[in-house]
Design a protein that fits this description.
alpha+beta; globular
């Protein structure tokens, strides 16, 4: 599978709510450097899985609207907006945040992520 296809698998509807799916996509030594409107976070494999579990408790749906995809070798950059439906109100889709992320793929897994987000 191409690096682009591997990265895009993570951003399919509801994948971020599925711990097993996320675990299959991540390299065991994965790290994400995340600059958000709340500050800098560095996450490893266990942190990513914990975030997935947290998201699955709060949301019944997760959908990315990708506006840009750029690839160069094993590196893939995306720009997207993340929409969710909450457990409390599953009929209403709400914008969670806007993201830009760069992923490096190694051994057909997501290995290094560099992400920025702006909450709506």
């Amino acid at each position: 599978m191409s690096p682009k296809d591997r990265v895009l698998e993570l951003y399919k509807s509801d994948v971020l709510l599925d711990k097993e799916a996320v675990a299959r996509l991540m390299h065991p030594e994965v790290t994400i450097d995340w600059n958000s409107s709340k500050g800098f976070i560095q996450m490893n494999y266990d942190d990513i899985i914990a975030l997935t579990e947290e998201l699955s408790r709060a949301y019944v749906r997760s959908k990315m609207r990708i506006s840009h995809v750029v690839t160069e070798g094993d590196t893939v950059a995306l720009r997207f907006s993340h929409f969710v439906k909450t457990i409390e109100n599953p009929r209403e889709e709400m914008l969670l945040a806007h993201f830009s992320v760069i992923w490096e793929v190694k051994d057909d897994k997501l290995y290094r992520g560099y992400q920025m987000s702006q909450f709506s």
